Amino acid sequence: MGKNYIDIENDHGEQLRYRKHVNGRGLIATGAKVHPDARVEAGAYVEPGARISAGARVASGAWIDSNALIGPKATIEAGAHIGPGAMIGASAHIGVRTNVGEGARVAPGSRIGDDETIREGMAVTTDRKGFLLAA
């Protein structure tokens, strides 16, 4: 049986150890917390300090940066990047290749489309169709 982890050197020359999540085989860094009922697909990365709640789904190619929080039943689509310290609310949907900036907040149930950018520190709420609502 092969090893269940991989070591990767980051941009600062530090070695980080990632384990393969039991539900999807995505790579979870030491120090990240991922609920066993979450699905992190192969090719997705979850950085140290990030937290992924029960029922959340992180698609292949997505990157959950350090200290980000993914709420229950949230969906992060392929190629999306959730920045450091960003928070994605329960049942929110983040589209393909969407970038959520550092410290940004996406309200529960919000739907962010494909190829969107949520700027650093921004708070976003949408209706069920993805239309932005006034804060």
TrEMBL record:
Keyword terms of this UniProt record: Transferase
MF-aspect GO terms: transferase activity
Xref: InterPro entries: Hexapep (IPR001451), Trans_hexapeptide_repeat (IPR050179), Trimer_LpxA-like_sf (IPR011004)
Originating organism: Microbacterium oryzae
Gene3D superfamilies named among the record's database cross-references: Hexapeptide repeat proteins
Name of the featured protein: Transferase
